[in-house]
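Researcher: We plan to redesign the surface later, but first we want a full-length starting point. Tokens attached.
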């Protein structure tokens, strides 16, 4: 392939890359929203992205009402990093520091991503088993069968 061909294709490749990340963000945030609904988590939380310049090496998800232990039961440190990065992407915010009700995750972030994808002509379908597994491996997500238990009803966080 020639340099001139790559540069000529640049606008299309950038659009495709953005759509790919929109799709990934939609899929991951929808998974988080499903987990939250299944566990019946509710309450106000504060979500902050990692900020090495502020000596905050990890993202944080803090329960503002209820128990922090419920957050820790349902989300790994990696989950929280992913959630913060994906919400920052969905909102366009850098140095994310956002307070919202956790049960509104789908309404606030998943639905707008879905609308953007549909407006770009993307048809929302279900991932096949092999594609879901490949995406999980690429995102370092724990397979559903290995997730922390979510059997309690109506966790207030």
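Model: Full-length starting sequence:
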């Amino acid at each position: 392939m020639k340099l001139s061909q790559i540069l000529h294709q640049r606008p299309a490749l950038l659009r495709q890359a953005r759509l790919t990340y929109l799709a990934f963000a939609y899929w991951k945030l929808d998974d988080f929203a499903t987990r939250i609904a299944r566990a019946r988590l509710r309450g106000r939380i504060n979500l902050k992205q990692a900020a090495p310049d502020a000596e905050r090496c990890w993202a944080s998800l803090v329960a503002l009402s209820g128990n922090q232990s419920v957050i820790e039961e349902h989300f790994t440190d990696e989950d929280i990093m992913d959630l913060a990065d994906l919400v920052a992407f969905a909102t366009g915010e850098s140095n994310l520091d956002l307070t919202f009700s956790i049960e509104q995750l789908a309404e606030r972030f998943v639905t707008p991503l879905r609308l953007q994808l549909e407006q770009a002509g993307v048809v929302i379908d279900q991932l096949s088993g092999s594609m879901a597994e490949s995406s999980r491996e690429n995102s370092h997500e724990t397979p559903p069968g290995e997730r922390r238990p979510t059997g309690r009803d109506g966790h207030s966080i």
